[in-house]
Specification:
By secondary structure, this protein is of the alpha/beta class. The chain has eight helices and 15 strands. The relative contact order is 0.12.
Length: 322
């Protein structure tokens, strides 16, 4: 057994190089390639009947194991689960079947080391949207964490992002104000960093465009934590998180819920101790240069504070403090 080995691109990150992220105990890493699943399961050694968390990436697809490994170091079985852009999975974020995630939940429920009654999910961006959607769909998920999520089902790469029982789920089909779209096209043509937030603002202001695409978060069978950056330039994550919270309130949601909104943070809120000076990045799938938003200090604070609050949230929701 290794303490921890994670590949990021072609680089091997070992436990020695991430001790600053508080790797607390021995963790084993096992690649999962069964029942059509593509993922990596991290397990804390010496534990049984432990809580579990499914960890999802966003529109970049593939896998990103660091978060799952760190959750395991805090006592959670953690499944880093790819859902497109990896091995035999769909190449693009298009027509992704929710049934795939039901299989992943069942895999965890049947694992001898995992408590089937304490399974949660965490995701960022499109993965945050997906986490809310899966929580609203599958009652076996007992808590949901969404980093900078959408409160609506957004489109995939040329069509519906998600399907259920073989049928596409309704999604936002509008592209918003024509003038805004012209500005986006101009930015793309000139090689400037693209800011998508105005497009989403114009879409969200059109009640007809979003009608029927809302994620029914009130159906989630457990606690909910959403995290947003008020300077998010990909989409207005703070506004959408607040819409989700308002929907919970309107439906007398019986579980705990919380929205962490960070004033000077952008779209890239994640693990602490990572560089936060990068406000623009090339998208790993489209190759487009995009504006992420946030200040270095604001992003750093959001990453640090939200991570600590996530750990507290998970502990209170599915951890051993119950």
């Amino acid at each position: 057994n290794v303490l921890l080995e994670v590949y990021i691109g072609d680089s091997l990150v070992t436990s020695d190089s991430i001790t600053r992220l508080r790797v607390l105990q021995n963790v084993t890493r096992t690649e999962i390639r069964e029942r059509g699943l593509v993922g990596t399961l991290f397990l804390p050694e010496g534990r049984s009947k432990m809580p579990a968390v499914i960890s999802l990436t966003g529109s970049g697809g593939g896998m990103s194991e660091i978060r799952a490994a760190l959750l395991a170091s805090h006592g959670y079985a953690s499944l880093d689960l790819a859902y497109f852009g990896e091995e035999n999975l769909p190449e693009a974020l298009l027509n992704i079947p929710l049934d795939y995630f039901d299989t992943a939940i069942d895999f965890l429920k049947k694992h001898e080391a995992i408590d089937s009654e304490r399974i949660g999910i965490i995701g960022a961006s499109r993965g945050g949207e997906l986490s809310l959607l899966l929580g609203a769909t599958y009652s076996d998920l007992k808590c949901v964490v969404g980093y900078v999520p959408s409160a609506f089902r957004c489109p995939g790469d040329g069509g519906p992002a998600w399907t259920s029982s073989g049928k596409p789920l309704p999604f936002i089909m509008s592209t918003g104000d024509a003038g805004v779209m012209e500005e986006i096209q101009r930015s793309i043509a000139s090689g400037e960093a693209v800011t998508f937030r105005p497009m989403f603002n114009s879409i969200l202001s059109d009640s007809n465009a979003i009608q029927g695409t809302e994620i029914p978060v009130e159906n989630i069978n457990g606690d909910v934590l959403v995290i947003s950056g008020e300077d998010d330039q990909i989409w207005p994550s703070s506004d959408m998180c607040e819409m989700a919270i308002q929907r919970l309130e309107a439906n007398d949601f019986r579980h705990k819920y919380k929205h962490l909104s960070y004033k000077d943070a952008g779209h890239r809120i994640g693990l602490p101790f990572n560089p936060t000076t990068i406000s623009e990045a090339y998208h790993p799938v489209s190759g487009m240069l995009i504006n992420l938003g946030g200040t270095p200090a604001g992003n750093a604070y959001a990453c640090s504070d939200s991570w600590n609050q996530i750990l507290e949230f998970l502990n209170n929701s599915i951890g051993d403090s119950e």
